[in-house]
């Protein structure tokens, strides 16, 4: 249980990462991924990387620059332009629905205009899920200059699209539905220079 804890990625650039283990029984037709990050990086960095053997960017939350997030599903992406961070924690949730191809993006509890992405696609279930690096091959192929440096917390993955109420609940750290990956019961393995610490402030 990592409640009120964070992963601190100490180095920049870094070869460190955290492997997450999810119980995925079948491919995903819908999902939501949420996390909270704190960094002063201005270079590109990966926040959440989910790769299958067929597709290295099966699900990817990537920040190419301070005022932009990219959300990938099945190797294709949509871009969400955001105000440049005030050097504070940023909470993001991204959800996707195969039937409509609708991609939702929420920043700090507020929704951005929805976009279309990979309608009819299915996300594979046999996945390598990493924090802190962007995979260019299954479980590897890292570019150090896409690595994350800073603090990450409150990482979740659901096999459904969350309702607006639940998106706001995730931002406020309230009670959430059972998840494939849940911060309060996370199965993970640290690779390299990552330290688990208490959160400095709420």
Automatic annotation (TrEMBL):
Pfam families: Pentaxin
Protein localization: Secreted
Predominant cellular place of this UniProt entry's protein: secreted
Keywords assigned by UniProt, alphabetized: Acute phase, Calcium, Disulfide bond, Metal-binding, Secreted, Signal
GO molecular function: complement component C1q complex binding; metal ion binding
Entry cofactors: Ca(2+)
Cofactor note: Binds 2 calcium ions per subunit.
Entry superkingdom: Eukaryota
Any one cellular-component term (Gene Ontology): extracellular space
Residue pairs linked by disulfide bridges in the UniProt entry: 34-93
Gene3D superfamilies found in the cross-reference section: 2.60.120.200
GO biological process, one term: acute-phase response
The keyword Cell membrane appears for this protein: no
Every Pentraxin (PTX) domain range: 3-202
Homology family: Belongs to the pentraxin family.
Assembly and oligomerization: Homopentamer. Pentaxin (or pentraxin) have a discoid arrangement of 5 non-covalently bound subunits.
Protein name: Pentraxin family member
Gene name for this UniProt entry: Ptx2
């Amino acid at each position: 249980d990592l409640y009120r804890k964070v992963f601190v990625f100490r180095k920049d650039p870094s070869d460190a990462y955290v492997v997450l283990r999810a119980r995925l029984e079948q491919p995903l037709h819908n999902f939501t991924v949420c996390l909270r990050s704190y960094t002063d990086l201005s270079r590109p960095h990966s926040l959440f990387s989910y790769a299958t053997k067929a597709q290295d960017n099966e699900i990817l939350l990537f920040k190419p620059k301070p005022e932009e997030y990219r959300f990938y599903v099945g190797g294709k992406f949509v871009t969400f332009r955001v105000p440049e961070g005030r050097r504070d924690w940023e909470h993001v949730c991204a959800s996707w629905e195969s039937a409509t191809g609708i991609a939702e993006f929420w920043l700090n509890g507020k929704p951005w205009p929805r976009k279309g992405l990979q309608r009819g696609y299915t996300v594979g279930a046999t996945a390598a899920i990493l924090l802190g690096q962007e995979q260019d091959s299954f479980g590897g192929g890292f570019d150090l200059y896409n690595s994350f440096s800073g603090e990450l917390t409150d990482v979740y993955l659901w096999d459904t699209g969350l309702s607006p109420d639940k998106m706001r609940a995730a931002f406020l750290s309230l009670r959430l539905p059972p998840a494939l990956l849940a911060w309060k019961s996370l199965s993970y393995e640290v690779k390299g220079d990552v330290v688990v610490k208490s959160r400095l402030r709420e």
